[in-house]
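Hi, here's the filled form for the chain we discussed.

Project: internal
Contact: R.S.
Residues: 363
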Amino acid sequence: MREIECVRMANTSPGMDDYLKKLIKEVGFEVKFLSWDRPEAGLSSPLLLLSSPENFAELQKIFSSREEKVIVALNSRKDFKLVSELKSHFNKIFGFIDISQEIEYNVPILKNYLNMNFSQHTLKIDKLASDLEKVLEYTQNHLSKIKELHDRFVKMRVEKLKGLTLSSKFMAGEKSGGEFFEVIQNEQELLLVQAGSDSYLLSSILLSEIEILKEKSVTADLHKEAEQFQKIIGHHANENNAELTYCMMHLNLRTLEASFTLRGQGHLFYQDELISFDKPMKIKLKPRDRLCVISEGAMKNWNILNSKLTPKKFFQQNSDKAVKDLVNEFFFELSRNKAGSFLIYDALMAVVEIEENVLYQLS
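And the returned structure, exactly as it came back:
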């Protein structure tokens, strides 16, 4: 069995080791654990580095000793703010994974890392054929469990905030990059950020900048911070020659005035209209209003996998459903024709519901 070397702290918890074993087993490899005290990592084998602020010096030593790219694992979303400190080593980093997430969240990037960096010069054809047979057997044996796994792992995130409810759902895709959703709020304002990229590195930078933005949110003017955030991620996209898409909604919680900065091929659905991410816009929301944000990845998957039913027609036919039923029906239609366990692209949908009895300032 092929191995992925995994460098982590010697006193890592058994639960963390079990997580890493299961993750690496999902991509057909076994794990070889090494300690930061004596890493002795191979110069050409697949390598996963479990990083923290305390071992940045050791990280740099490993980067300088190998030509092949590595995967860097971070303990939580908060650790992604450290990504910028590794900017000078991005040529050695394939991408970052978040080990606080479900295993299924990290499988696509690990598969792509192995396929793009080790499939030709380290894997023998006969071994690859054997593994493909096992994958086929596994798929056939577990085909009936796909719906069960979907319900178990693709959970809906629901947040009750001041005057509104936010519901969102995410499904992973096999293409490079990623999509993310975050909500930042203070007493007077709310900032909804949905962003994505076709680059693993830019995706990690997005998470890093979002965490920095969250730290500023308590006392900051979120509208101004959103403008600065947009400039920063646009600069990183240009610097890395990467695709960037986003929907940023700034909502005044007193007046319910929402302003949108949009980029990419995603869409909004509001008052029976499907609105593309093609230009900035403003909306005056009202109690009981519902607004849907559909990511670029979701739209790409839909156009490829469900071309017979347009997204606009789907939303018009299902707009009277409860939010949970609407979101679940959307992902059912989105994924019903997919070939494997994952979509082609990451997909995300979020729904903003204004409370019926919310108090707001009339203009």
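Let me know if anything looks off before we file it.
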